[in-house]
């Protein structure tokens, strides 16, 4: 790098705000990455607005349901512990599922727009006029579904469940047995840990190839990235069916969508419960995870090259 | 020092040649005007210089290969592409934060100083600003970067006269110095005539004129010829003849000033007039060669 630090500011005596501070030599890659991720949050505010809205909705619904709560709890005292457990946990799990589903949809639409929108509004010309590489840009965009959204989902879900628990406790303060039942059956600490694992492992790592594919299409498509992302997958499945009368591709997608434990667990079950069956070790040992990550890396590398070559639409 | 050096720079889009093996050199401290009709290859040349498009041939910008080292190059290069490429959702304060975060040569206080002289507020989003204000904002951001090369592609397109005038004034007064180089393309030739130090005409992917403004002024002369001198003046082969207020105005290329003074008042022509004359000649030559 040949960047002679000649004090150019001295050559502009008439400059109104002439600062004599020499320009810092360089900016670390971490700092560029940090600001690039912040830039994404500025641009796509739905990343945090959507899960917050889902959280507000759940809490509002829960508050309304509390009117009937003392009666419900009273009736529940007669049930067996398994049923009690299910009854008490249900609204909390529902809150987690709703927020998780919301952020999953946000992640999909975010990825489809991430490298398409900047070409559509030509702002890519501005971003490319700054010393940020295509790799940094694509990685910062990929970090939103892979890391930022799972962590954000986790934080919002835990906060929501805590609010629900506080309200729940306040309502039941007058009745001892119901309150005791609530606190014995609800172990938010444990489920939170499972949730965090689920979000980082499944939504972050296991689904990574989906996000990689969506980012690739977003960098490639001139129009309608959504169609370009979905139709080729459908086409491959149809061609395979016609040509060989098999559906391996569809099965592969279903396997990827269902998560590593999908073969073992039944579809109707709560994902939280099925999670119990998969330990961290098993997850890290599964070849499916590593194949998926390799495919993701390939997709992202292609997206980087596409961003380099593609011109504004 | 050389800011830009191109040798055999070539770029084809399908069968269309946008750049047909051009050679040029821009020295440090110059303000080069790149003038050409639509589709002449100006933007392609700028995109190649900025590392936005791959090319064939040799190109060095500040000693770097722009296509492979764009991000490093952009520490020393700034550019304003034609109209409004600032994203509409961006707040002015966010733009300042982001640039301060990623650009080692961005001086935030300087940018705020420039913005203080405008009606742009830090809380404004780009979408709330008028076209002229967006350009002011972009210029303020760019002028606060201590860059060696500034590339402007039609920077004043669609702006009213006040903003256009202000744009070049602040560029010259608050930004330009001998260590910086500016390359500008524009169709509004008359407003850059007194700004430029060098001039390049480009047509159909080829450079048809490449000279400094001093050379331009000594080489091209325009004479409003008295009717009785017209045959004699025409014998000196003007490159263009046009009627202005009923008088013939003849444009000469490399004809002695003293000789022309006998026919009438001699003056430096506008870049626009020379441009039209050179383009007409070049186009007819090109068509002649094709036949």
Biggest beta-sheet profile of chain A: none
Order of helices and strands of chain A: HHHHHHHHHHHHHHH
Q: Identify the overall geometry of chain A.
A: globular
Tell me the Rg of chain B in angstroms. Answer: 21 Å
* Strand-residue proportion of chain A: under 5%
Domains counted in the coordinates of chain B: how many?
A: 2
Rg for CA atoms of chain A: 25 Å
Fraction of residues in H or I helices of chain A: over 70%
Give the topology string of chain B: H per helix, E per strand.
EEEHEHEHHHEHEHEEHEHEEHEH
Overall geometry of chain B comes to globular
- Strand elements of chain B, count: 13
Approximately what portion of the residues of chain B adopt beta-strand conformation?
Answer: 25-35%
Mean of all residue-level pLDDT scores of chain B = 88
CATH superfamily of the largest domain in chain B: P-loop containing nucleotide triphosphate hydrolases
Distance between the termini of chain A: 34 Å
Sheet with the most strands: spatial strand order of chain B: 5-6-7-3-8-9
Total of domains of chain A: 1
Q: For the largest interface in this structure, which chains are involved and how many residues does each contribute?
A: A-B, 46 and 49 residues
Roughly what is the average pLDDT of chain A, rounded to an integer? 82
Description:
The complex is a heterodimer of chains A (313) and B (291). Chain A is globular, with a radius of gyration of 25 Å. Chain A has one domain (44-256, 276-309). Chain A is built from 15 helices and no strands. Chain A is 74% helix and 0% strand. Chain A is an all-alpha fold and 313 residues long. By secondary structure, chain B is of the alpha/beta class. Chain B is built from eleven helices and 13 strands. A six-stranded mixed sheet of chain B has the order 5-6-7-3-8-9, with helices on both faces. In chain B, strands 11-12-10-13 form a four-stranded antiparallel sheet. Chain B has a three-stranded antiparallel sheet with strand order 2-1-4, covered by helices on one side. In chain B, strand 6, helix 6 (161-175) and strand 7 form a beta-alpha-beta unit. In chain B, helix 4 packs antiparallel against helix 5 and helix 5 (131-143) packs parallel to helix 6 (161-175). The longest helix of chain B has 20 residues, at 271-290. Chain B starts with a strand and ends with a helix. At the A-B interface, helix 1 and helix 6 of A face helix 2, strand 5, helix 3, helix 4 and helix 6 of B.
